[in-house]
Design goal:
This protein is an alpha+beta fold. The protein has two helices and three strands.
Length: 71
């Protein structure tokens, strides 16, 4: 079934990029973006909206926010 194949491709694509750490945050035109270091990509970082973080990213974001609140 073609839809099953599409779903598998999306799952595979999502698995390729795993958030290693959330390092910072900023607002851009009213949207909060997070500075993300990706697992397996060395020190490379990108600014991403929360929607792009995936499941592991949500956990890393929670860790970042908890750490920030305790400072």
């Amino acid at each position: 079934d073609r839809n099953d194949a599409d779903s598998d491709e999306e799952s595979d694509e999502e698995e390729k990029y795993i958030v290693e750490a959330v390092l910072d945050e900023k607002k851009v035109k009213g949207i909060t973006k997070y500075l993300v270091r990706w697992e397996g990509w060395g020190d490379a970082t990108t600014w991403e909206p929360e929607a792009n973080l995936g499941t592991v990213g949500e956990l890393r974001l929670a860790e970042y926010l908890e750490q920030k609140a305790s400072k």
